[in-house]
Every structure is written in structure tokens, then in C-alpha cells.
């Protein structure tokens, strides 16, 4: 009979979903914590405010008032001694007292800001000080030294009256500041007692609330979730075919069903991912084979293209040597055009091959000292550097993980351009700098050459884009495009600095380690 009577009770509890338990528990907890938090915050804020006012305003203000009184006594002693004797040494405490007076009154004005009574007492003190100084102190201090000042005798009674008035003003000020400090201490003590009671109450309520929440979570959530967790751990261990049996409240049963549905979808996704991986492996193999065929095609094409060009150049030059006396000047000019065109076509083909190989053929990554790479590049450019009288300076360059061949091509192109595009009649001056910029290194190659207009700052990095004719400056128009490709392969960017007007400044960044890429 007892078991039968307990059955409806169990059914009634089962209608309480996890969401309902959480809503009730969270709402009650938040309400209690909000009240406790607001009360605690108010008490703490009140305690801190009174304590700060006492420590930072009331006590320092009283101390400064006492110091101000001491400074005025020093002034009065010095003026009285100087007036009676005329000895200049008596002016030392007077001047020192003046300095302390100005400092203390200025600081008091800051501390008493917003305190009407305190500022009123301070104004009274200042008025009394000014009265005594204007009538007694400054006139006696201005008297010539060596002899007693007649004003000291003539205004002795007036000076005593003025200084007594000053003392009364300062006594009034100090009494007010002491009273303020006593009140602040009393308020602080009362607030601290209240704070202690409030936090003791908060501690008791938090313990009680924690107990209620713990029991509610245990009965309404923890036990059903343990069964769900056990099934989830079985799946996590790799048994994705293990089904999840829904148990517990209605919402947890729905959650179990959704997790089981997710498990089934995951099984399908794993099957699909495995199939996609197999397809990707096949495509990667096809891509590697295609790249190898493309490299072979590029080599064969370049060889087949260069062989006719070499024949054109050779036979044209042979024709000029054998029949040179029978040809006129125009024929010699045509022959020169043909030889020059063939040579430029060979250079262009070689540059295109180098451009296509960046990131495909040259992708050896190793710790590389850029100072050594720079020296090799300068050695390769030594003839043009010597002919132009170029002066090249550089900062200490870092060691990076990079491809040595590509780094050599990068420096050789940038330094070579700086030497090539120089101002007529002026030796190139080139400086290479390197600074750390977060995870990157920022490099700059600065020269005093002809410069690049801002409107062409992007165009110069496009392959075959030239800003000058081949007769003015030689080249294929691939150099900066290759530099851009090398820098981007190493995880950086390259730009022309538009703000530099003394020539050209190419700025680029390189990562300490290049980004991970799949080997083509």
C-alpha cells in the first residue's frame, strides 16, 4: 500500500523538467544574490568613501592647517627679529614661511573643494594673512638692513592685533577641521559595525542558499545526467554505434534523443569525411602529377623556345661579321635590333621560369642568416655597384626560417632595382633596415633614386608592368612581381611607402617561420 501511495508522488515529481528546476532555482538565487550584492556593495562603498575622506581629506587638511600656522609663526618671528635688529638672517625664516604658506594654502584649497564651511574658514585665514602681511610683514621686510626698522616700533600694537586676529582665524579653521575629522571617524566606526553585520548575514544566507541549490541539483539533474554521461563516455571511447537510451525527466529524455540523433549524424559525417579524404588524396596525387608535368613542360618549352632564339642571334651576328662590308648602316641597325630582341626574349623566358618556380621548385625551409644572404646578393651585384659608385648600408638582419634561393632572389632584385633606377649624375645611396613588429619582421629598402609615383604603387608589383621604356632602363618587368610572390610565400606583404619622397622605399614583412603549406 505504501508503494502504491508513493507512485503518484513520483509521477508528480517527474513532471518537473530540468528547465523548471533551473528557472526556479536561478530566479531565487539571483534575487537573493542581487539583494545581498547590492547591500554589500553599498556598505563597502560607504565604508570606502568615509575612509578615503578621512585619510585623504580630513586628516591631511588638519595637518596642513597646523603646518600653515607654524609657517605663519616663523614669518612673525623672522619679521619681528628683523624689525628690531635689522639683521638680514632673520629674513630667512620669514621667506621659508612664505614658501610653506603658499604651498599649504594651495593644497588646502584642493582638499576643501566642495566643503563650504571649510572654504569659508580658509578665506578668513587668507584675509587675515594678507592683512598682517600687507600692513606689517612686507613693509618691514622692505626696510634697508643694518638698522632697526622704525615701522617695527610704530606698528607694534597694530601688528600684534593683526596677528592675534590671524591666530583666531586659524584656531577657528582648525576647530572646524577637528570637528569634521571626529564626525568622519564616528561615521566610519558606525559603518564598519554595520558592514560586519551585513557580511555575517550574507555569509549565512549564501551557505543556506548553497545547500538548497545543491539538493535541488542532485535530485533534479545530477542523477539523470550520470546515466546520460555514462552513455556519452562509451561513445567518446570510440563506440559510435552504441545507442543512447533516454532516461530521466522529459527534457533530459529529449536531450538524450537529440544526442543520439547527433551521434547518428556524426557517424554519417565520419563516413562522408573518410570518403572525402580519399577523394582529396586522389586529387592531391593528380595535382602533384600535374605540377610535375607542368614543370617538365616549362623546361621543354623554354628549351625549345631558346634554341631558335640562340640560332637567330648567332646566325645574325655571323651574317654581320661575314658580310659586314657589303651592308649599309641601316642593315647593321636591323641586325642589332634582331640580336637585341633575341637576347631580351631569352632573358624574359628565364625570368618567367624563375617566377613560375617560386613556391614550387624552391621550397627548402631552413634557419637562414639574412646577413649572409645579403652579402651573397651584394657580391652578385658587385659590378653594377662598383660602376655606379653605390653606397649600401644596412642594419643587423635577423635569422629566419626561409628558403635560401628565394631570399637571395628577393634581395638581389630589390638592391638591383635601387641601383638601376638611380638619379642621373648622382651615386645611389641605399639603406636596408629591419625591425621587429610583433610576430613579423618588417624590412625596408630605401634609396635616393627616381622614386615611384603613388598612383603606380600597386601597378609595379604586377608582372610585365613597366613604368619606363626598355631603352631608358633595361629589364623584363618581372622583378617586383617575383619579390611579391616570394614575400607572400613566406607569410608577409610588400608595399611601396607612399609617404617617402626622397626616392623609393620598399617595405615588406616576413614571418619568423613561414606558414604551413602542403607540398605541391
Describe this structure in words.
It is a single chain. The protein has 12 helices and 7 strands. It has 520 residues and is α+β, with helices and mostly antiparallel strands. Strand 4 (429-437) and strand 5 form a beta hairpin. It is flat and about 130 Å long. 21% of the residues are buried.
Number of helices: 12
As residue ranges, the low-confidence spans are 1-10
Over the alpha carbons, how many angstroms does the gyration radius reach? 46 Å
Class from secondary-structure proportions: alpha+beta
The main β sheet shows up as: 5 strands, mixed
- The amount of beta strand, in percent, is 5-15%
Average pLDDT confidence is: 78
| Shape verdict | flat
Distance between the termini: 79 Å
What is the compact description of this entry?
Helices cover 70% and strands 8% of the residues. It is an alpha+beta fold. The two termini are 79 Å apart.
What is the secondary structure topology, with strand pairs?
Elements: H1 2-14, H2 18-85, H3 91-111, H4 116-141, H5 150-154, H6 156-236, H7 250-323, H8 329-357, E1 366-369, H9 370-380, H10 382-388, E2 391-394, E3 399-402, H11 404-420, E4 429-437, E5 440-447, H12 479-489, E6 494-496, E7 504-511
Parallel strand pairs: 2-4
Antiparallel strand pairs: 1-3, 4-5, 5-7, 6-7
Helix pairs in contact: 2-3, 2-4, 2-6, 3-4, 4-6, 7-8, 9-11, 11-12
Label this structure with key terms.
12 helices, two-stranded antiparallel ribbon, alpha+beta, five-stranded mixed sheet, 7 strands, 520 residues, 70% helix, single chain
Amino acid at each position: 500500500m505504501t508503494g502504491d501511495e508513493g507512485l503518484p508522488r513520483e509521477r508528480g515529481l517527474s513532471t518537473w523538467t530540468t528547465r523548471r528546476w533551473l528557472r526556479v532555482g536561478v530566479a531565487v538565487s539571483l534575487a537573493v544574490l542581487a539583494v545581498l550584492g547590492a547591500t554589500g556593495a553599498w556598505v563597502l562603498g560607504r565604508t570606502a568613501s568615509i575612509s578615503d575622506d578621512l585619510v585623504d581629506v580630513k586628516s591631511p587638511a588638519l595637518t596642513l592647517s597646523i603646518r600653515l600656522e607654524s609657517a605663519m609663526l616663523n614669518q612673525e618671528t623672522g619679521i619681528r627679529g628683523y624689525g628690531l635688529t635689522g639683521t638680514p638672517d632673520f629674513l630667512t625664516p620669514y621667506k621659508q614661511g612664505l614658501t610653506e604658506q603658499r604651498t599649504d594654502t594651495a593644497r588646502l584649497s584642493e582638499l576643501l573643494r566642495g566643503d563650504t564651511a571649510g572654504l569659508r574658514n580658509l578665506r578668513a585665514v587668507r584675509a587675515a594673512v594678507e592683512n598682517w602681511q600687507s600692513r606689517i610683514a612686507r613693509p618691514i621686510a622692505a626696510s634697508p638692513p643694518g638698522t632697526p626698522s622704525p615701522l617695527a616700533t610704530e606698528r607694534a600694537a597694530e601688528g600684534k592685533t593683526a596677528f592675534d586676529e590671524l591666530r583666531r582665524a586659524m584656531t577657528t579653521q582648525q576647530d572646524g577641521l577637528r570637528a569634521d575629522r571626529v564626525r568622519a571617524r564616528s561615521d566610519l566606526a558606525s559603518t564598519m559595525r554595520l558592514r560586519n553585520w551585513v557580511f555575517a548575514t550574507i555569509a549565512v544566507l549564501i551557505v543556506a542558499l548553497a545547500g538548497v541549490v545543491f539538493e535541488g541539483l542532485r535530485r533534479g539533474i545530477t542523477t539523470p545526467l550520470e546515466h546520460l554521461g555514462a552513455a556519452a563516455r562509451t561513445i567518446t571511447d570510440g563506440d559510435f554505434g552504441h545507442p543512447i537510451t533516454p532516461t530521466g525527466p522529459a527534457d533530459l529524455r529529449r536531450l538524450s534523443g537529440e544526442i543520439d540523433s547527433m551521434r547518428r549524424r556524426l557517424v554519417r559525417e565520419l563516413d562522408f569525411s573518410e570518403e572525402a579524404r580519399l577523394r582529396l588524396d586522389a586529387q592531391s596525387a593528380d595535382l602533384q602529377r600535374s605540377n610535375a608535368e607542368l614543370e617538365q613542360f616549362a623546361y621543354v618549352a623554354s628549351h625549345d623556345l631558346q634554341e631558335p632564339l640562340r640560332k637567330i642571334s648567332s646566325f645574325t651576328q655571323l651574317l654581320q661579321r661575314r658580310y659586314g662590308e657589303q651592308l649599309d648602316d641601316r642593315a647593321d641597325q636591323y641586325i642589332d635590333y634582331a640580336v637585341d630582341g633575341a637576347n631580351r626574349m631569352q632573358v624574359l623566358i628565364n625570368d618567367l621560369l624563375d617566377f613560375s618556380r617560386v613556391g614550387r621548385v624552391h621550397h627548402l625551409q631552413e634557419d637562414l642568416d639574412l646577413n649572409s644572404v645579403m652579402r651573397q646578393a651584394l657580391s652578385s651585384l658587385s659590378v653594377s655597384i662598383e660602376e655606379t659608385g653605390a653606397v649600401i648600408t644596412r642594419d643587423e638582419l635577423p635569422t629566419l626560417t626561409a628558403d635560401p634561393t628565394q631570399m637571395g632572389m628577393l634581395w638581389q632584385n630589390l638592391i638591383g632595382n635601387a641601383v638601376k633606377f638611380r638619379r642621373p649624375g648622382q651615386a645611389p645611396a641605399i639603406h636596408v633596415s629591419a625591425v621587429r613588429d610583433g610576430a613579423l619582421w618588417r624590412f625596408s629598402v630605401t634609396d635616393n633614386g627616381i622614386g615611384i609615383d603613388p598612383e603606380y604603387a600597386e601597378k609595379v608589383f604586377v608582372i610585365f608592368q613597366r613604368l619606363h621604356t626598355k631603352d631608358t632602363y633595361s629589364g623584363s618587368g618581372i622583378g617586383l612581381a617575383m619579390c611579391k610572390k616570394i614575400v607572400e610565400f613566406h607569410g608577409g606583404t610588400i608595399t611601396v611607402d607612399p609617404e617617402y619622397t626622397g626616392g623609393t622605399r620598399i617595405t615588406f614583412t616576413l614571418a619568423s617561420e613561414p606558414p604551413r603549406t602542403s607540398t605541391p
